[in-house]
Design brief:
alpha/beta, Rossmann fold, 2 domains, 11 helices, 7 strands, globular, binds S-adenosylmethionine
Length: 264
């Protein structure tokens, strides 16, 4: 029964319902300078890389590489890193970072998920970190499986939203989440691929509020104008369990999926 469900179509319907507007390469170009150094020192990066297996002879394709968050963490321990991104600004940032780190085995590839990948090198390992909200997930999975010989590692935001699910539900706001890893897990299962699933956690974006008032202000920045009733609900939520509220509620969770692609 489950094999008959068209998860690719469900994914597309969910994506449409989320109202997601895809960013353009120039949107990302404008973020590159700020992201360049910020992403290189994060627990997310350490947590991601510590779950990978790689060796000195491996080649790595980092898809949606940004400023080299994952690829550059591996460069000194593998043979070659290819950073693929559709933003020239991000690729320039990655190459600046590579030069600063003295990594000479890093090559940029200006290609998008949607392009023809026939000239993209087939590597031992493919990595996709926080860069896989694509229009056509079946096509993306095909491309990854065709371009990795040994392993694919991919993260997807659990629940498909950066804002807090708890606060969204508390305020009765519309669910605008985008499709998350559960579609991918099922799509892989339908291809007789059995991924390993783990979770990377980082503090909620509302973590560190020392009072209900501060939380109200920060929720307002994320959700827009709050009514008096909204503020009361947030205040009551804070008072119910201040220790939990100071953590901002549930952490942000990234699903970390890894799988062996079918033999080519
Ligand atoms: C959130 S950043 C993630 C960067 C890095 N992988 C990380 O985890 O820090 C998303 C990256 O994906 C790239 N990207 C977004 N859509 C893309 C597409 N359709 N094709 C190729 N790259 C894309 C962006 O330019 C950006 O560098």
């Amino acid at each position: 029964m489950i094999k008959a469900i068209d998860f690719g179509q469900l994914y597309r319907e969910h994506l449409t319902r989320s109202g997601r507007v895809f960013k353009t390469p120039s949107d990302w170009d404008s973020k590159a300078a700020k992201m360049r150094t910020k992403v290189l020192d994060s627990s997310y990066r350490t947590d991601f890389v510590s779950r990978m297996q790689y060796g000195a002879q491996d080649t790595v394709l980092d898809v949606g590489c940004g400023p080299g968050t994952i690829g550059l963490a591996l460069a000194s321990q593998v043979k070659q890193v290819y950073g693929l991104d559709y933003s020239q600004g991000m690729l320039d940032a990655m190459m600046d970072n590579a030069a600063q780190l003295g990594c000479r085995n890093v090559e940029p590839i200006l290609v998008s998920w949607e392009d023809d990948w026939s000239a993209v090198p087939i590597c031992d390992i493919a990595v996709v970190s926080r860069a896989s909200i694509v229009a056509d997930m079946n096509d993306a999975l095909d491309k990854l499986n065709q371009h990795a010989r040994k392993k694919v590692y991919m993260t997807q935001l659990v629940g498909g939203r950066f804002v807090s699910r708890e606060i969204e539900e508390l305020l009765g706001r519309e669910d605008r989440s985008f499709p998350d890893h559960m579609y991918i897990m099922n799509m892989l299962y339908q291809r007789n691929i059995y991924p390993t699933l783990d979770y990377l956690e980082s503090p909620s974006r509302f973590a560190g509020c020392s009072s209900a008032q501060e939380l109200i202000e920060r929720v307002g920045w994320s959700f827009g104008e709050l009514s008096a009733e909204d503020k009361e609900k947030i205040s009551a939520w804070y008072q119910r369990d201040p220790e939990y509220a100071r953590k901002g509620g549930e952490p942000t969770r990234w699903a970390f999926m890894s799988w062996t692609p079918p033999a080519h």
